[in-house]
Amino acid sequence: MSKVQIIGENLSNLPWQDKPEGAVGPVWRHAENPVIGRNPAKGIARIFNSAVVPYEGKFVGVFRAETINGRPHLHLGYSDDGLQWKIDEERIPFVNEAGQPFQPNYAYDPRLVKVEDTYYIIWCTDFYGASIGVAKTKDFKSFIRLENPFLPFNRNGVLFPRKINGNFMMLSRPSDSGHTPFGDVFLSESPDFVYWGKHRHVMSKGGQGWWQSVKIGGGPAPIETSEGWLMFYHGVTGTCNGLVYSMGAVILDLDEPSRVKYRSSTYVLTPEEWYEERGFVPNVVFPCATLTDAATGRIAIYYGAADTYVGVAYTTVQEIVDYVKATHETVGDDAEIGVM
Ligand code: BMA
């Protein structure tokens, strides 16, 4: 197979473990998972489905903190090595664009994406039901909450790490406000981060297998590679005992990212370990962030486990891209631009 490269920055200090002998599949777990356990800070019962970035030689993250009254809010966390995290006891002190304090009624499943010199936080917020909330920071000290980009109901807002053809690009998964029984991934673009349009369908749930038969949702920010935008995402199946969340991988066209080039017909990670199978919601792996090193092609994936813990998993760009191409299937009109 041809040599695949990450188009991006080097990050020699990203967490890493080599693939263990006998590991099954293209993604392997950090041996000391979970990296964040229960009751990680005062007033916080569980942390999961969270996002991290490299910052000033270390790491910073926006964490989904399930507080001890059961509501999720967003808290910052800091780490020297990307594995041991110190979580703020206070919520992120958002202000609105007029400078007044703002707190969402609830906030969950954050993504954290740097575009140019700005870090954007994208999360699921309450806007007359589940919708996408956005905020920005440059220094992780002041956080400006911006206008909600989309109408309700919507979740899994995932920003691309650079503008494409001059515009910001954001994936999302329109659906309902409850424990959504349906959903495909769509793309919207914006010249200014205020007005969003040119909506496109990107990828459908379904396919030959059953692991993504109920719904799918974008995961970490897509990774730019020589083969296209590589994105990990979650795919959900239904059982008599409830939903099961697995991780899939897809490669989108670099210039027209609403076109799927390759998509794995099998999951790349599914709940198998105790911390994925047992917790507040059993059988969930839910990826929200990656760290990447262009020099080595290494990728560290941060995922929520069982709505209770944070896990880390690893792959290389070569291994995962080869795997996705080898297991590719076309689902519905994924290969099309997605306009009707
Ligand atoms: C989804 C979201 C995720 C959660 C998952 C499994 O609808 O709420 O935050 O991880 O359900 O409970």
Automatic annotation (TrEMBL):
Write out the GO MF terms: glycosyltransferase activity
Keyword vocabulary terms for this entry: Glycosyltransferase, Transferase
Using the record, list the residue span of the signal peptide; answer none if the entry has no such feature: none
This protein's superkingdom?
Bacteria
Which family is this sequence assigned to?
Answer: Belongs to the glycosyl hydrolase 130 family.
The molecule here is called Glycosylase
Q: Which organism is it from?
A: Paenibacillus faecis
Top-down, what is the taxonomic lineage of the species of origin? Bacteria, Bacillati, Bacillota, Bacilli, Bacillales
